[in-house]
Amino acid sequence: MPDESETGPVGNGDKFYQGVIHSLQRGAQRGTIRAASGRDIPFVFAYVTMLGSHRDFDDLYEGLRVGYDVSWTSRGLRVSVIRIPD
């Protein structure tokens, strides 16, 4: 899990872990978010809940700062929620 130092306000006063979109695979609609600690956490867009006014995969781009939350799956830690600040 990301540690306490990675949390903070991202958009509208909500608190999520903070990170940056590190890589995207447009065809597969998957990617990774780089946490403040430097850890890359994968996501598959079909299993991500998007919060805020930006809800499409096309709204994501490498280098975008986002708020996110994680879940444990049978394949390990995965991003489960992404919020793009307005």
Topology:
Layout: E1 7-9, E2 15-25, E3 30-35, E4 40-44, E5 49-51, E6 65-73, E7 76-83
Parallel strand pairs: 5-7
Antiparallel strand pairs: 1-2, 2-3, 2-6, 3-4, 6-7
Element-by-element helix/strand order: EEEEEEE
Number of strands: 7
The fraction of residues assigned to DSSP E strands is over 45%
Q: Which stretches of 5+ consecutive residues score pLDDT under 50?
A: 4-12
Number of helices: 0
CATH superfamily: Nucleic acid-binding proteins
Task: Using the alpha-carbon principal axes, give the shape.
Answer: globular
By oligomeric state, this entry counts as single chain
Q: Ends: how far apart?
A: 26 Å
Which sheet architecture does the biggest sheet show? 7 strands, mixed
Which class in CATH terms?
Mainly Beta
CATH fold topology: OB fold (Dihydrolipoamide Acetyltransferase, E2P)
User: What is the count of distinct domains?
Assistant: 1
Examine the secondary-structure arrangement and name the CATH architecture. Beta Barrel
Rg:
12 Å
What's the helical proportion of residues? under 10%
| Mean pLDDT across all amino acids | 88
SS content category: mainly beta
